[in-house]
Write a structure and sequence with these properties.
Layout (H helix, E strand, L loop, with lengths): L2 E2 H8 L10 E2 L1 E3 L11 E4 L2 E2 L2 E2 L4 H7 L3 E4 L13 E4 L3 H15 L5 E5 L4 H12 L5 E3 L9 H6 L8 E5 L8 H8 L3 E4 L13 H9 L7 E5 L3 H10 L4 E6 L7 E8 L4 E7 L2 E7 L4 H16 L4 H9 L8 E5 L5 E5 L5 H12 L7 E7 L8 H14 L4 E5 L1 H5 L9 E3 L2 H7 L8 E6 L7 H7 L7 E5 H12 L7 E5 L1 H5 L3 H11 L3 E4 L2 H9 L6 E3 L7 H6 L2 E5 L2 H13 L5 E7 L13 H9 L4 E8 L10 H19 L7 E3 L3 H6 L7 E4 L21 E6 L2 E5 L4 E2 L5 E2 L4 E6 L17 E4 L2 E6 L7 E4 L10 E5 L5 H7 L4 H6 L6 E6 L1
Parallel strand pairs: 3-4, 4-7, 7-8, 9-11, 9-12, 10-11, 12-13, 13-14, 14-15, 19-23, 20-21, 20-23, 21-22, 24-42, 25-26, 25-32, 26-27, 27-28, 28-29, 29-30, 30-31
Antiparallel strand pairs: 1-2, 5-6, 15-16, 16-17, 18-19, 18-42, 24-33, 33-41, 34-37, 35-36, 37-40, 38-39, 38-41, 39-40
Helix pairs in contact: 3-6, 4-9, 7-8, 16-18
Length: about 800
């Protein structure tokens, strides 16, 4: 739907803008997501990860002319053709605009979905199941937040006959706003668990908050067998009709008689208003059956005939919520998005791709036919081609009959194939060099085959890096800091083994104040990959000062000799006011100036203009040991006194930071201007007092079983016959060894790895490329996954076995192990 700038001003209660006839169709909150600048309105949001006002000039250069801001830019004259809508809160303005837009379509039936798990799956399955009957507008991916919901609802237009939106919350009080924007006529609450519990006093309180979405609904759908949900719905006095399904109570309107898993499907038998029915879904997990029952209830409520429901349920496609990033062949980076293959999900995938774009890499998209679309094919593929063109995609490869049939809408250089097989026959990995490749295809096209040929490494052992967990841990600590306190995120040692580039880009998007690396080479690598945020070098034994200065890598300075060296080399290169970080030794006794050195440091600094002290910092030696708290407090006292001495010698603000991950938890009153977040960022707790229980492991080292053999008692296993079987046993071989980072001392039963939820002890010595585990009591087969460490086997447990620290477990993972980065 098209609004004018005048319309927007009226809806927001603002003065008319200087260009009232400007057309607005698209709302923007991310400066990297521009594809129709002339028709876009940008909301300069102030979030914990950044300030949108910093991107006004960049967006104006791209062609955006309408901005919702808290204040006009100081250089207003540089925006001669712009409309600035000045509001008190840009997020509230976005929400108000979406609310007003929803009110224009107040008769549109809308399904609102909330819950702890399954929201996105239920939303996407409902889209697949109802798309033949409705023109559906829905949330893309997991756009379920205070920002995502308004952007989703804005997509309602005159052609829409049904809306499906999900709503997610992180703390009390948030759902009222989302309910007022979505205004659902049918509300679904999938389930309530302990996921995302941090912002709520109890599971019951979280459920009551989620039930707020259901206010004003004509009908609410939920599982009556959940006491928590049933009580919350009853207490809310919603006054709505209830379609509460149950596996226990045959008097409920939808009674689930039985759920029967088969080898590749699940049969669900039910009674709806006393009438029997049966569906079969092509999934076997219990969670899939629960999600399908919510969809079944919705379809029955909407009057879809039972035989048609059964037909559509049998054709359900999986929803791959993970978005993987892997290292590709020939200096390529591959993003595999198996979420859904429709036009609505393409834009978020391109947004994710834009955040990983780097100079020197061509942007490539491999796209299948778009599925579950009601738009006429001509309009659909014309819009797809325009979107790809506007996002700077220079290389397009289309796979499928439909996209090939509409190839005329794409640039002449684009290539098209009727099937995935045809593409693989005619193209090889050598056709892809120095490219950022987005692979996005519907399930029937089996694009995992395309992803496989483009992977740089094919070792069965992989390190899975969950970027959502990384962001969760970052926000866990940010919520415990003052808004003005910055976070220095440690990405040294290849981000504790996880891989610095993807981790750095995620942290850059989240608004970390600094990245910290150990050596100059690590910082140069990040700069070459397109990381632009400030980078601190903690152990800069500098040989190439030109690389340090040229890449804006800010060194820590811990000695007079080092300070004189950098000044001397900077003078040769004409450097002025380059930021440095002064390191104090307050008790670690490793590196740093002693407090009595500071007068000499001040004299040197004041006698030149090559470098300027940006921050002063120190390391706590034993913040995680309460018995040494007196020593820690002594360190803090020395630090504050010495920092003040340095600050008093300079007119500009010198930042202070001393707290590490444990210090943030135990000594928050000393957070100063910044804190340094290290091992806890990667989900490894440093305390045993449960204060860090909400951390989530970021890295999971995983492999697969490649062989299983049965051996009689007395058989010896492995080198030097060190594994002696005491009973008849099933022994599995897994392709991971000490060359991959599995310490040899974990052999001979000292450690166990996880197979299908069971602990399986090692047998015999760890080999270079393989090891053996005892799976006698575990149901498993060749090809089953094995977790070495991660969510089920904590790295801290393996560290305890080795009498070491988890840092060593994480950083020991070999470079030959493929890193797979994903978002849920």
């Amino acid at each position: 739907m098209i609004y004018t700038a005048s319309d927007i001003a009226s809806l927001l209660g603002l003065q008319q803008p200087p260009f009232p006839d400007a057309k607005i169709t698209t709302l923007l909150t991310d400066s990297r997501s521009v594809d129709a600048p002339a028709d876009s309105m940008f909301f300069a949001l102030l979030t914990s990860s950044g300030d949108g006002h910093h991107y006004l000039a960049e967006l104006y250069r791209k062609g955006v002319r309408n901005f919702v801001v808290k204040h006009c830019p100081v250089d207003r004259d540089l925006f001669p053709e712009a409309n600035f809508f000045i509001v008190g809160d840009t997020l509230e303005a976005l929400q108000a605009l979406a609310r007003a837009h929803r009110n224009r379509f107040h008769d549109l039936p809308v399904i609102g979905v909330t819950g702890s798990r399954g929201k996105t799956i239920v939303k996407e399955w409902l889209y697949q199941l109802l798309q033949p009957s409705y023109e559906i507008v829905r949330s893309p991916r997991s756009y379920n937040s205070q920002i995502g919901v308004p952007l989703s609802v804005w997509e309602i237009n005159e052609e829409s006959t049904l809306g499906i939106f999900e709503a997610g919350i992180s703390k009390m009080g948030e759902m009222t706003t989302l309910q007022s924007i979505i205004q659902p006529s049918i509300g679904i609450i999938t389930n309530i668990g302990l996921e995302h519990q941090e912002g709520f006093p109890s599971k019951e309180a979280k459920c009551r908050e989620k039930v707020t979405l259901l206010r004003g609904c004509d009908t609410v759908i939920y599982c009556a067998d959940s006491r928590t949900i049933s009580e919350a719905v009853a207490d809310a006095c919603l006054g709505a009709n209830e379609l509460a399904w149950s596996r226990r109570d045959p008097e409920r309107p939808l009674y689930i008689k039985g759920v029967f898993p088969k080898l590749h499907s699940t049969v669900i038998e039910y009674y709806y208003l006393q009438q029997p029915g049966r569906i079969e879904i092509p999934f076997t997990e219990s969670a899939d059956a629960e999600n399908a029952i919510h969809c079944l209830a919705t379809m029955l409520l909407l009057g879809i005939p039972q035989d048609e429901i059964a037909k559509r349920m049998a054709a359900l496609s999986p929803v791959a919520t993970r978005l993987n990033v892997i290292e590709g062949v020939n200096n390529c980076m591959v993003i595999h998005d198996g979420y859904t293959a429709d036009f609505g999900s393409l834009r978020p995938a391109l947004d994710f791709m834009a955040r990983r774009a780097t100079a020197g890499r061509e942007n490539t998209v491999i796209l299948s036919d778009l599925m579950h679309e009601s738009l006429p094919a001509d309009r659909l593929y014309r819009a797809t081609a325009q979107l790809l063109r506007s996002r700077g995609i220079s290389k397009v490869i289309g796979v499928g009959e439909e996209i090939s049939r509409h190839s005329r809408y794409f640039d002449p250089e684009a290539r098209f194939f009727r099937s995935t097989t045809e593409m693989l026959e005619q193209m090889s990995p050598s056709d892809f060099v120095d490219e950022l490749i987005l692979i996005k295809g519907a399930a029937p096209f089996h694009f995992e085959q395309v992803s496989e040929i483009l992977e740089a490494k094919h070792h069965e052992t992989v390190l899975e890096v969950n970027l959502d967990s990384l962001i969760h841990n970052f926000n866990f600590y940010r919520s415990r800091l003052r808004p003005s306190t910055g976070i220095v995120a440690m990405v040294k040692a290849s981000a504790y083994g996880a891989g610095a580039l993807e981790v750095a880009k995620s942290l850059q998007s989240q608004g970390a104040a600094y990245l910290a690396v150990a050596v100059v080479d690590e910082g140069v690598e990040l700069r070459r990959a397109g990381v632009t945020m400030p980078i601190m070098v903690l152990n800069p034994k500098v040989v190439n000062y030109r690389a340090l200065f040229g890449n804006q890598l800010e060194p820590e300075i811990f000695s007079v000799d080092m300070l004189r060296d950098i000044i001397r080399e900077g003078e040769k290169l004409g450097i002025t006011n380059f930021p440095i970080h002064i390191k104090l030794d307050t008790g670690m006794h490793r590196l740093g100036f002693n407090p009595e050195d500071i007068p000499q440091v001040v004299n040197i600094l004041q006698s030149q203009d090559v470098v300027s002290p940006c921050s002063i910092f120190s390391h706590l030696a034993c913040a995680d040991d309460p018995k040494d708290d007196d020593y820690t407090l002594q360190q803090l006292e020395i630090f504050h006194a010495t920092a003040e001495l340095l600050q008093s010698a300079f007119p500009h603000k010198i930042l202070k930071h001393i707290l590490n991950s444990t210090g943030i938890t135990r000594f928050p009153e000393h957070q100063c201007d910044m804190v340094r977040l290290g091992i806890c960022l990667y989900g490894i707790p440093t305390m045993d007092d449960h204060s860090q229980d909400d951390l989530r492991p970021v890295s999971t080292l995983r492999t697969v079983i490649i062989s299983i053999k049965e051996w009689p008692a007395g058989t010896t296993i492995g080198y030097n016959r060190r594994g002696v079987l005491e009973r008849k046993s099933r022994i599995a071989t897994i392709p991971v060894g000490y060359a991959d980072g599995v310490n040899r001392h974990l052999g001979r039963g000292r450690a166990s790895f996880i197979v299908n939820g069971h602990r399986c002890p090692t047998v015999g010595n760890i080999c270079m490329d393989a090891c053996m585990i005892d799976v006698t009591d575990v149901p498993c087969a060749v090809g089953d996954a094995v977790e070495i460490f991660g969510t089920q086997m904590p790295a801290t447990e393996l560290a305890h076995v080795l009498d070491t620290i988890p840092y060593e477990i994480l950083t020991a993972v070999s470079p030959r192990v493929k890193r797979v980065y994903y978002r849920e």
